[in-house]
Amino acid sequence: MLKGLSIALFLSVWWVVVEVGFLGFDLLRTPLETAVSLSSFVLGEAMGSGGESLYVHGYHTLYRVLLGTGLAIATAIPLGLACGWSDWWRNYVYPSLELLRPIPPVAWVPIALIAFASEFMGIVWVVFIGAFFPIFVNTMEGVAQIEPEYVRAVKSLGGGRWELYRHVVIPHTIPSMITGTTIGVGIAWIAVVAAEMLSGGPGLGYITFQSYRLMDTGVVIVGIMVLGTIGALSSSVVTRVGGRITPWSDEVGE
Amino acid sequence: MSNDNQTASDAGVRPDNQDGSIQMQNLTKIYDPDGESVTAIDEIELNIEAGEFVSLVGPSGCGKSTLLDCIAGFIEPTYGHIYVDGTRVDGPGADRGVVFQENRLLPWKTVRENINLGPKMRSETIDGRAEELLSKMGIEGTGDQYPTELSGGMQQRAEIARLLANDPEIMLMDEPFSALDALTKEIMQELLLEIWEEDNRTVVFITHDVEEAIFLADRVLIMTAGPGRIKETIDVDIERPRDLDVTTTPQFNELKEEALGHIVEEAREAMESGQ
Q1: A53-245: which CATH architecture?
Q2: CA angle A219-A224-A227, nearest 5°?
Q3: In sequence order, what are the residues at sequence separation of 6 or more whose Cβ sits closer than 8 angstroms to the Cβ of residue A46?
Q4: Which CATH architecture has domain B20-95+170-275?
Q5: Is A166 helix (H, G, I), strand (E, B) or coil?
Q6: ipTM of the assembly?
Q7: Average pLDDT over residues A108-115
Q8: CB distance from B51 to chain A under 8 Å?
Q9: Which residue in A has a C-alpha nearest to residue B107's C-alpha?
Q10: CB proximity under 8 Å: A 100-159 to B
């Protein structure tokens, strides 16, 4: 009820500022106009000048996010486990990763676009870098929080190095991995939009920025709405999957 | 009680010629925080026979947990050695099961998975073993639950079931019942004796509760604080099987007074020497 009220209020403020022409808001579209263009794009009408539909742009962006995030999960989790558990990895590998960590993912865009052979690979790299560190850091910190008694318990039952990994280190750290992945996916979306804006299309970030240049604000608004929606959906997918695979933990999901 | 052809692990019944003796020689552990060394246990010489139930009592900080951690192989003594059946201890092993003060069931595994963990790591067949142990411990039907869904007392039962499933020669128990309420604690003490009388594993039981120590053990060792040494040994020749009724007999009270006398004396000495 209150939720509906809040959304209604938001829509009316939006409508009023566009109608009244507060600052430059008269150049934007009203909620109603936006709804009309959103529905036509959902029905497959070409977005902007390039002629590709919402689905083509969405597909490219989603593909880059999934690939970049997937690569990040596949590398950050093993590295986080290794650097958290083994002194050798922490001493010899972790310091160089720490060197790269403070660089904002978006700042990688120019280098990535130059260094990688294709725009596609450059964008995937930026997404990867954005998603990698939250997952890596959370995994590593999760390992650091393992209570020594769990290790002792498994050793006393006859477990060796591999059993400790399998029965203590990995399961204990899964909730932290999921937390890291949730954050990582959020950053992946930020990174993909920024990279696409600078690199070229197709893609949701590209078409949103391109339409801004052409002052096609209908597309711009629809673009950011779709990006927001997919971003929210993807983090809820991570949380749900996470809750499913950690039935013992109330840290993750609901 | 046991059949000569059966091995201990497949039947859960120990053979009569059992293992599980512990020898400690000159056992010393010195911790070194900030270069200021603290002697936790000092030159302990102790033999525990296979199948014996020994309680260790003493004030907190007397090194009893250090001693237990050394036997378990969690920490290395600074000097001296521990032998189990003549083999030197150089790390934790499945022959020495541990029941922790705070429950240490793995929270990410169900109760059944916890109980099956030890045998599973050795690829042993485990059909029905968990169910059998759960009902023996009086918590049948909890196998599919996660540890946090059980009460403290039930978790403690499940942890003992996990230890029994692994069939160790020695049970090391570090104040296992100290976090339980009085009634649950009494029930657990009787249950522990029942289990012990069935298969006579060696038990080293740490407690600060003198009554608990006497009720359970064949032998009560009283430890001194700073540095930890064994001050006194009290043989408990109360007949077995025991139930809690023995705690009101004159014989029990005499042993209790004797033990308390040593502990009070020890506490007074410690106070006078400024600890």
Answers
A1: Orthogonal Bundle (1.10)
A2: 120
A3: A52, A53
A4: 3-Layer(aba) Sandwich (3.40)
A5: helix
A6: 0.87
A7: 88
A8: no
A9: A248
A10: 149-150, 152-159
